[in-house]
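Response to reviewer comment R2.3. The reviewers asked that we include at least one raw input/output pair. We reproduce the pair for Ribosomal-protein-S18p-alanine acetyltransferase here without editing.
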Amino acid sequence: MSEPVTTVRLAPLRRADLRRCAELEQQLFPGEDPWSEHAFATELDGGHHYLGAYAGEQLIGYAGLSLAGRPGDMEGSVHTIGVDPAHQRRGVGRLLLRALLDRADQEGAEVFLEVRTDNAGAIALYEAHGFDTIGLRKRYYQPSGADAFTMARPARPKEST
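Raw output as returned:
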């Protein structure tokens, strides 16, 4: 197992990092339809919750969550989580996922996501955070035609203070 990253800072994703996000997408999702810099910009412009994971000033990971609905009846969707291959298996993805889930929990939102059926590591991470498989999307990823599981985590209402 790789050494854990000792200093990773999570912060709102910066427009200056969108090119790096697109570069990481190319590395992480070969044979698929990786997101472009424009796709990330559209997500930010849409007001979605996007975080960057930084080692110093270098972006080493990113994650995004959308929230929809009315207060008390919110639903979340994890749009993406990506970690630089040089920094994988060091807890960066776990930190990003926890931060997204913390945001969803602030709204008491149930959270959904899709994950490739052959991505055992990601599936295990999601299950460890309370997600269950609720469906199968045949040929979800394009152009490869890979299948995806739809997973869901029940809402965790805000704790009253």
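The longest helix spans residues 92-106. The chain is about 25% helix and 35% strand. Further pairs are available on request from the corresponding author.
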